Amino acid sequence: MAVESRFVVIRNGVEVETFMDKKAADEYDKMLDMADNLSVLFEQSSIELTESLVEELSVYIAKNREDVLIALGAKKPKVAKVEKADKPESSKEEPVAKAATKKA
Q: How much is the pTM?
């Protein structure tokens, strides 16, 4: 007999998602909290949005919070590390000499 631990995210008495990992469940729950807070913000604005659009925008922004923070200037983008490849000496290009032009 196998024993499994499952972590269930419950919102308003309804099971929303089940995870095998507590960290993933906590991150998802945090994302839903952010989406709820964003929904309230959108509903308080003067912009007329449908309920489904408010929900869609809120979840999208919450899921992409890192990119949103970068776009707002609140966070710097991560710089991808590029490894330097060693070039063999024979692959280095020689400077190309300019051809002389003749005047007629």
A: 0.66
- Per-residue DSSP letter, 13: T
Task: Look at the chain and count its residues.
Answer: 104
List pLDDT tens digits, range 53-100: 999 999 999 999 999 999 998 888 888 777 766 655 555 555 555 555
User: What angle (nearest 5°) sits at the alpha carbon of residue 69, between those of residues 27 and 81?
Assistant: 85
Interhelix angle 22-44/51-63, rounded to 10 degrees, is 130
Sign of CA dihedral 42, 47, 51, 56: negative
Q: Where are the beta strands (DSSP E) in the chain?
A: 7-11, 14-19
Residue found under tokens 């990992």: 21
Nearest to 55 by CA among 70, 74, 76, 41: 41
The overall longest dimension of the chain from CA atoms, in Å, is 95
